[in-house]
Amino acid sequence: MKTRIFILSLLLASSMSLPAVTPTEKPAKWDLKTCIEYARKNNIQVQKAKISTQESDITLNQSKEALFPSLSASSSLNYSNGKIRNTAGDYYSNNSSLGSRYSISAGMTLFDGLKNYNTIKQNELQKKASELSTKETENSIEIAITEAYLEILYAKETLDMAKRTVETSKAQVELSQNLLNAGSIAKADFSQVKSQYSTDLYSVVTAQNNYDTQILTLKQLLELDMMDKLEIVFPDIKESDVLSPLPAKADVYQTAINVMPQIQNSELSVKMAEFDLKNAKSSYYPTLSLNGSLGSSHDVENDESYGNQLNNNFNQSVGLSLSIPIYSNGSTKASVQKAKLSIQSAKLDYTSAQKELLKTVESLYQDAISMQGKYDAAKEQLQSTEESYNLTEEQFKLGMKNTVELLTAKDNYLKAQQTVLQAKYGAVLSQKLLNFYQNIPIEL
User: Fold this and answer.
1) Which residues have CB under 8 Å from 81's CB, separation 6+?
2) Domain presence at residue 167
3) Per the count of CB atoms within 10 A, which of 1, 61, 205, 442 is most buried?
4) Is 122 part of a structural domain of the chain?
């Protein structure tokens, strides 16, 4: 009973000492930096990666403890009953006995071809690899958050543009109605303007749906609940941000090679594969172990006291055991050969990771240059189509242009606006990711 009370008191004390688990506080407004920091703490994939790191730490500690002796204790109670055979070969009576045995034994590996030592080194690398994998996951989430956030900004500007277009279309419908009443345009022309107004209303619905979808995507990346509100901060992105000078492509790649976790992880994989080879070769070497034990026994049928029996029957042993491998049916040789192939494969993966990173940097760099060029061209096109549209609208009011010409000029103007937005956010995204591969935090 005292033991139970003691255990319960320990459990109660430990539970009282544990910190209370409180949910992460959600910010009132979300800018890009806030989204990234929140996702690093709450995204499920990031949390799972951190658990894997903790598991690798446990594995490392376990491999270190394998260097220490193992210790075990045992106790047995035995009852036996049977006849005793005399010298003449006759069984003459029953004999029963009840006794117990107690023992403590220890064992320790003194030499195993350095397998334990190599395993520790390998698990240290594995722990670093797990930490790098967590960093990889965080980076992937950061990139996904950045893309989703910029998609929201793009969708919001598209929605605002669609709403402004509807207001313009509504005014054109009212103008066309007046012109129709005055006999300045035909009913067919008025119907075209009204149809365009309906199309612009539909575009608002589509843009709103796209905006809501992008908000939902970001909420899912942030692991927010259904009822959580996501009030986005919309930064003012200036033209200087879009057309800011780009870093040298070679500098971006060289920095990325040194800081990106996927490259460091691939390099660690080569080193871990080399330890696999060392462990495989260790099976060629003898294994030397140290063993020792302490024991005693007690027999109920013996007239001696319990303590005297334990003292008289007390025994000790210590010894060395040497296991020399002679022939293992080719298993050790096969393990060594496979380990060598694994090293070659890991080196190829390392080279592939470098090439993949180079491909990513080159693509981002090319996208940034392309989008900046498109943005310059789209700005000029927007200016010319805006002037053409305004002129056509004035001429339409005077009856100098027909409905088809007005709607065509308007459509060209809207397309130019959309092209500017696409180039704007494409250029910003490429620049932010280029900065990211230079280990520069992503911010807007």
Assistant:
1) 94, 95, 96, 97
2) no
3) 442
4) yes
What mean pLDDT do residues 278-282 have?
92
350-393 confidence digits (pLDDT tens): 999 999 999 999 999 999 999 999 999 999 999 999 999 899 98
pTM value is 0.80
CATH of the domain at 271: 1.20.1600.10
Residue 19 has pLDDT above 60, yes or no: no
| Alpha carbon distances (Å) from 185 to 147, 167, 173, 402 | 48, 21, 12, 8
Give the Cα separation of 338 and 113 in Å (integer). Answer: 19
Q: pLDDT at position 13, please?
A: 39
Q: Which of 172, 176, 178 shows the shortest CA–CA distance to 188?
A: 176
Range of the domain at 401: 52-69+94-153+237-436
Give the pair of three-digit tokens for residue 38: 């929140």
In a domain, 367, yes or no: yes
pLDDT tens-place string over residues 173-209: 888 888 888 887 788 888 888 998 899 999 999 999 9
Would you state the pLDDT for residue 400?
A: 83
Total number of domains constituting the chain: 1
Q: For residue 106, is it within any domain?
A: yes
Q: Judge contact between 146 and 36, C-beta under 8 A.
A: yes
Instruction: Describe the crossing of helices 331-397 and 115-182 by its angle, rounded to 10 degrees.
Output: 20
